[in-house]
């Protein structure tokens, strides 16, 4: 004959263990992963961009050294547009980023940066007195103004 206690005790233990496993104890849905920088991250990046010499030194003097800066600002702008979509400032941010992209396209078209001043020459000595000096400085000035605009708009969001 089977001892009834040997069946009842394991069944009771199993019942107690599974009673604590209800749906309410765990997450209610699948985990949501967030990709990309937050507004706070972008605020840190804009502070770094504003501290760059390409943002603070006279544009007519520094523009040949700002190729990397210009690329960083375009990439930053794309991240800002993506992260702030749906905010009250989204349209103004998009307009500022569009101006940045146009100014950087002009900067690149005119070969304003050091690496493009004398193609093929590694130690190019960029002249700030050439025919593109004024348009290059103007393009950089537009980028700088829009970085300041984006910084102000980000502060309104975060």
Task: Report what the structure shows.
The structure is a single chain. With 158 residues, this protein is mainly alpha-helical. The chain has one domain (34-157). The chain contains eight helices and no strands. The chain has helices at 4-19, 39-51, 53-56, 59-62, 67-84, 90-109, 114-117, 133-157. Helix 2 (39-51) runs antiparallel to helix 5 (67-84), helix 5 packs parallel to helix 8 (133-157) and helix 6 (90-109) packs antiparallel against helix 8. It is rod-shaped and about 100 Å long. The termini are far apart. Residues 117-125 have low confidence and may be disordered.
Count of strand segments? 0
Protein structure class: mainly alpha
Which percent range fits the helix content?
A: 55-70%
Arithmetic mean of pLDDT: 82
Main sheet? none
> What's the tally of helices?
8
**What amount of the residues lies in strands?**
under 5%
pLDDT < 50 stretches: 117-125
Q: What's the Cα radius of gyration? A: 29 Å
Shape: rod-shaped
End-to-end distance: 74 Å
The helix/strand series, from N terminus to C terminus, equals HHHHHHHH
Number of domains: 1
């Amino acid at each position: 004959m089977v001892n009834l206690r040997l069946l009842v005790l394991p069944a009771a233990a199993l019942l107690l263990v599974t009673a604590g496993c209800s749906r309410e104890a765990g997450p209610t849905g699948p985990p949501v992963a967030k990709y990309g920088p937050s507004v706070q991250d972008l605020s840190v990046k804009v502070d770094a961009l504003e501290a760059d010499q390409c943002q603070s030194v006279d544009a007519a003097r520094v523009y040949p050294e700002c190729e990397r800066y210009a690329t960083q600002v375009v990439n930053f702008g794309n991240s800002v547009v993506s992260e702030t979509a749906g905010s009250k400032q989204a349209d103004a941010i998009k307009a500022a980023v569009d101006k940045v992209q146009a100014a950087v396209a002009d900067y690149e078209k005119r070969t304003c940066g050091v690496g493009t001043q004398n193609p093929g020459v590694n130690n190019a000595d960029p002249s700030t007195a050439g025919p593109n000096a004024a348009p290059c400085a103007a393009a950089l000035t537009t980028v700088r103004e829009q970085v300041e605009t984006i910084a102000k708009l980000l502060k309104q969001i975060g």
